[in-house]
Amino acid sequence: MKFFVDTADVAEIKELAATGLVDGVTTNPSLVAKTGRDFFEVLREICDIVDGPISAEVAATDYDTMLAEGRALSKLADHIAVKVPLTPDGLKACKALTSEGIMVNVTLCFSAAQAILAAKAGASFVSPFVGRIDDVGSDGMALIADIVEIYAGYLDFETEILVASVRHPMHVVDAAKMGADIVTIPPGVLRAMFNHPLTDKGLAAFLADWKKTGQSILDR
Ligand code: G3P
Fold this sequence. Notes:
This protein has 220 residues and is an alpha/beta fold. 51% of the residues lie in helices and 17% in strands. It contains eleven helices and eight strands. The radius of gyration is 20 Å and the shape is globular. SN-glycerol-3-phosphate binds at residues 6, 26, 28, 129, 131-132, 164-165, 184.
């Protein structure tokens, strides 16, 4: 299972990438707006930190402009994945960019039917938004289970399932149980995954007992 981080904050990405656990990065227009920085400058910096797929979203909604924007974004680095919305024009752009050898992440997926379309369009990644589905009183992870099941039945579907809009560690655990390929995790959720009170308590007890021995591992 691959971990992407869902942020455009370069400092956060640098810090989390240092753990060695980060396989890629996803950004979106809202995350870029939050930084208040130049989009291309931010993307260049992210591409230098992480060598896995870096999702960069188009801002247009019509096919021709999406294609032009996708090509412009992809010129930044080979590991840019152009993010397009799950619309008829978006999927048309997905097919065209994919045929040019550019990775495409089809975003804003909220149904299994849409995920089938993304796979048919040859997307490298499809991004179902589990948290936003939960937010409206539905079951986001049930959508992931459906997509995993559907994609497993077709060897010609090469699209990876990128679980997005993650809100808490249990989304990651459930995605792992279902065999989703990738989870894009907000920095706060990734940090929360490390935490357990019994780890803290156990470590404190081990350190206290070790102190009593008066020994040092390095002074040998
Ligand atoms: O990057 C897409 C997705 O992860 C957005 O998440 O929290 O805005 O629903 P959120």
